[in-house]
Design brief:
391 residues, alpha+beta, Ribosomal Protein S5, domain 2, 11 helices, globular, binds adenosine-5'-diphosphate, binds magnesium ion
Length: 391
C-alpha cells in the first residue's frame, strides 16, 4: 500500500463519488490518523509521559448536513448502514461500531450545542483492533464531521475530551487520552511527547528518512485484560504505601528512583519491579525527547530496546511472540530500535527503521517470525503524519 498524496487524492475522489451516488450531494471530507506509541508504555495511567506519533493511515468520513433529526451512517468496513435519531442517543454500550458515532454525537450534544442531522460515509484505512487506534481516529474524524454539519466548532482540546468521553460512556472502554490527543495534534515528521497529567505536549523532530513499522504478532492472549487491571492495582497499592513516607505523592509519576530504592523493603518484590518499570520508563521518555532534539536516532533506538526489556522483565507484560519480533529486529541492519507496544501479551511491536532498509527488514522478519512461530505476521509501514482535519 502506498501512502502517497496521489493515492489519498484518488481515495478521497472515490469516496466523494460514492457519497454523491448515495445522497445526491457533494460531501465535505474529513480524516483523522491512527497512531503508534514510540516509547512510554504503561505510564499513562501513572500520570506519566508518552511519546506517540500520528501515522499516515486514516479514518475518512464524508459528510453532508440533513434537515431532519437523523444520523444516516454507512461504514465501508462493515458494509453496513445504520440510522439513528438524534433524540434517542442515550443508553449503554450496544457492542456495535455505531456506538462510537452515537457517543460522539451524544457527548457533543450534552455540551449544550445543537447537533444537526447528517449523512456520513466512513472509510477506514487503519486496521481495526490491531493496536493502531482505529477507534480514536473514528471518533475524531466523526467529531470534525458533525461539528461541520452542525455549524459550530470546539477548540481542539475540547474535541479531544469529547471523543475520550464518548469512548468511556458509549463504548465502555476506559481509554486514556493519548490516542485522541495525537490523532488531533500530531504533526508530520514529528513525534509528540505528552505529559498525561498536565496535557502539555512537545513536538519532536523525526528525520524524513525514518519509518515507523508496526508488526502484528497476530496473537492476542486471553489474560491481557485481567493482567492489565492487576498492573494498575499494583501501581495504586505502591502509591498508597509510599504516601506514608512521601505525602505529596499522587501517582508513580511523583516517585524518583532514589525514593523507590529507599522504601523498597516495604513493597512486595513484584510491586517494586512494577514501580521500577514505570519510573524508569518515564525517565526514558524524557531522555528519548533529548535524543530526537539532537537528531540521534541510534540513541533513541537504544532506549526503545531498554523499554522492551523493562516491560519484559519488570512489568512482565511481554510474550514469546513479541520477544521473537524484537530479537529479530535487533539483528537487522538499518533498524534503530524495536519494542512491544500497547497493553502487551500479544498485539504489536513498533520499530524505527531507516527507509532504505525497510524492504529487507520486512522480508527478513516475516521469514524469521514464520520459522520461529509458524505464524504469518502483518506489517504496516508508516510515516509520522499530521493530525486530523478537513481534506
Ligand atoms: P483499535 O482502536 O486498536 O483499532 P478498538 O477495539 O479500540 O481497536 O477499536 C476498534 C473498533 O472501532 C471496531 O471494532 C469498530 O467498532 C470501530 N471502528 C474502527 N474503524 C471503523 C470503521 N472504519 N468503521 C466502523 N467502525 C470502526
Ligand atoms: Mg482503540
Amino acid at each position: 500500500m502506498s501512502n502517497s498524496v496521489a493515492s489519498f487524492e484518488s481515495m478521497a475522489d472515490a469516496l466523494r463519488q460514492r457519497f454523491q451516488q448515495l445522497h445526491g450531494r457533494r460531501p465535505r471530507i474529513f480524516r483523522a490518523p491512527g497512531r503508534a506509541n514510540l516509547i512510554g508504555e504503561h505510564t499513562d495511567y501513572n500520570d506519566g509521559y508518552v511519546m506517540p506519533v500520528a501515522i499516515d493511515l486514516y479514518t475518512w468520513v464524508a459528510a453532508s448536513r440533513r434537515d431532519d433529526r437523523i444520523l444516516h451512517v454507512h461504514s465501508d468496513h462493515f458494509g453496513e448502514t445504520i440510522e439513528m435519531s438524534l433524540d434517542a442517543l442515550s443508553g449503554s454500550p450496544r457492542k456495535h461500531w455505531s456506538d462510537y458515532i452515537r457517543g460522539v454525537a451524544a457527548v457533543l450534544a450534552a455540551g449544550g450545542r445543537e447537533v444537526s442531522g447528517a449523512n456520513l460515509v466512513i472509510h477506514g484505512q487503519v486496521p481495526l483492533g490491531a493496536g493502531l487506534s482505529s477507534s480514536a481516529s473514528l471518533e475524531v474524524s466523526t467529531a470534525l464531521a458533525l461539528m461541520w454539519t452542525s455549524n459550530f466548532e470546539l477548540p481542539p482540546l475540547a474535541m479531544v475530551t469529547v471523543c475520550q468521553r464518548a469512548e468511556h460512556e458509549y463504548v465502555g472502554t476506559r481509554c486514556g487520552i493519548m490516542d485522541q490527543f495525537v490523532s488531533t495534534f500530531g504533526r508530520s515528521y514529528h513525534a509528540l511527547m505528552l505529559d498525561c497529567r498536565s496535557l502539555d505536549f512537545q513536538l519532536l523532530p523525526i528525520p524524513a528518512n525514518a519509518r515507523v513499522v508496526i508488526l502484528n504478532t497476530m496473537v492476542r492472549h486471553e489474560l491481557a485484560a485481567g493482567e492489565y487491571n492487576r498492573r494498575r492495582a499494583d501501581c495504586e497499592s505502591a502509591v498508597k504505601t509510599l504516601r506514608r513516607h512521601l505525602p505529596t505523592v499522587v501517582a508513580l509519576r511523583d516517585v524518583t528512583s532514589a525514593d523507590l530504592e529507599r522504601y523498597k523493603s516495604e513493597l512486595p518484590d513484584q510491586v517494586y519491579r512494577r514501580c521500577r518499570h514505570v519510573i524508569s520508563e518515564n525517565q526514558r521518555v524524557l531522555a528519548a525527547a533529548e535524543t530526537l532534539q539532537a537528531g540521534d536516532l541510534n540513541r533513541f533506538g537504544h532506549l526503545m530496546y531498554e523499554s522492551h526489556r523493562s516491560l519484559q522483565c519488570d512489568y512482565q507484560v511481554s510474550s514469546r511472540e513479541l520477544d521473537v519480533l524484537v530479537e529479530l529486529a535487533s539483528a537487522c541492519p538499518g533498524v534503530y530500535g524495536a519494542r512491544m507496544t500497547g497493553g502487551g501479551f500479544g498485539g504489536c511491536t513498533v520499530n524505527l527503521v531507516r527507509s532504505d532498509a525497510v524492504e529487507r527488514f520486512q522480508s527478513h522478519i516475516t521469514e524469521g517470525y514464520k520459522r520461529a512461530t509458524g505464524i504469518i505476521l502483518a506489517a504496516y509501514v508508516c510515516s509520522a503524519a499530521d493530525g486530523a482535519g478537513a481534506w
